UniProtKB/TrEMBL annotation:
The gene is fliM. GO terms for molecular function: cytoskeletal motor activity. Keywords: Bacterial flagellum, Cell membrane, Cell projection, Chemotaxis, Cilium, Flagellar rotation, Flagellum, Membrane. Its main location: other. It comes from the Bacteria. Transmembrane segments: none annotated. This is Flagellar motor switch protein FliM. It holds the Pfam family FliMN_C. GO terms for cellular component: bacterial-type flagellum basal body; plasma membrane. Belongs to the FliM family. It comes from Paenibacillus agilis. Gene3D superfamilies: CheC-like (3.40.1550.10), SpoA-like (2.30.330.10). It is a peripheral membrane protein.
Length: 332
């Protein structure tokens, strides 16, 4: 793509050439020279900048959902944010994480293959301490997990994948499912060492404990849906999906709203003294003829005209006319 210079940049360039600060011949030589860029074949670039931006947006939503989920589960302050989204070889990711960590290996149908949610032991053990009634402080010495501790963490993280499902909904309806929980990275080989992965790093703070949560997504797993990770496709899909959902939610709320319906037989005016003197058997004349329709009010608005009757020995009215638009009633 050719860079387009602004008018100010053009004026500055002409001024530099006129003053002799820049040489036109040197500029021509620079244009004719080949621009060489180093390329490491061990770090194959599989994700474009467009893909990285889309993955960042998706997992910013994931971080928000995860913050809400862990806050409710742990009943303490939780803050999770996306720090970085990068691509690197799987072997480099394995060498960058602690020798003892929490590795949640999961699948997400309809995608084929396995992914990993790596949780720093400080964060995971702080969660565990909080869930078991503690203050949410990670122990100074990190040891292996007991069977009970493993079961508790599996239950918590398996439900956390619901947040991933919600975050990816605008791109693909995935169904993440926890397959196993490991603590030693050397025993986890989900792809070949040179396979490129997308690494989403999330900074996590639980109370006073801080650490990282890393989501490892191999390129081979999401390769079939790479066209859907373009920013244009993502925004179009999000708009198409969000509008019907919002309309449907609004419709459901409106249909469940309760409204008072009142049928008015008529009106009558009496004095306070007459009201105080009323007894059983007294008759109040109404300002409405017997053959006139009755007004049916929805809330405070006259909406229907009805005639009185009964259904199965119960008083009822039958709608005979619908009032369109607003009706202005004369003040008596």
């Amino acid at each position: 793509m050719v860079d387009v210079l602004s008018q100010n940049e053009i004026d500055a360039l002409l001024a530099a050439l006129s003053s002799g600060e820049m040489d036109a011949e040197e500029l021509k030589k620079e244009e004719t020279q080949r621009k060489i860029r180093s390329y490491d074949f061990k770090r194959a670039v599989r994700f474009s900048k467009d893909h990285i931006r889309t993955l960042t947006r998706i997992h910013e939503n994931f971080a928000r959902y995860l913050t809400t989920y862990f806050s409710a589960q742990l009943r303490t302050f939780v803050q999770i944010n996306v720090v970085q989204v990068e691509q690197l070889p799987y072997d480099e990711f394995i060498r960058s994480i602690p020798k003892m960590t929490i590795l949640n290996i999961f699948e997400a149908e309809p995608l084929k293959g396995r992914m990993v949610l790596e949780v720093n032991p400080n964060v995971a053990l702080a969660m565990l301490d909080r869930l078991l009634g503690g203050a949410g402080i990670a122990p100074s010495k990190i040891q292996g997990l007991t069977e009970i501790e493993t079961t508790v963490l599996e239950r918590v993280f398996s439900r956390a994948f619901d947040s991933l499902h919600e975050a990816w909904k605008t791109v693909l309806d995935i169904r993440p499912r926890l397959e196993s929980l490991e603590t030693n990275p050397q025993f986890m080989q989900i792809v070949s060492p040179n396979e490129t992965i997308a690494l989403i790093s999330l900074s996590t703070k639980i109370g006073d404990t801080t650490g990282m949560i890393n989501l490892c997504i191999p390129h081979v797993v999401i390769e079939p849906i790479m066209p859907k990770l373009s920013v244009h496709h993502w925004f179009v899909s999000e708009k198409k999906m969000s509008e019907p959902i919002e309309v449907e939610k609004l419709r459901q709320r409106v249909t469940k709203a309760e409204l008072p319906i009142v049928t008015e037989l008529g009106q009558s005016q009496i004095t306070v003294n007459e009201l105080m003197q009323l007894t059983i058997g007294d008759v109040l004349p109404l300002q409405k003829k017997v053959n006139e329709g009755l007004g049916v009010y929805v809330g405070e608005r006259l909406k229907y005209i009805a005639t009185p009757g009964n259904v199965k020995d119960r008083l009822a009215v039958q709608i005979v006319d619908v009032i369109e638009g607003e009706v202005e009633e004369d003040d008596e």
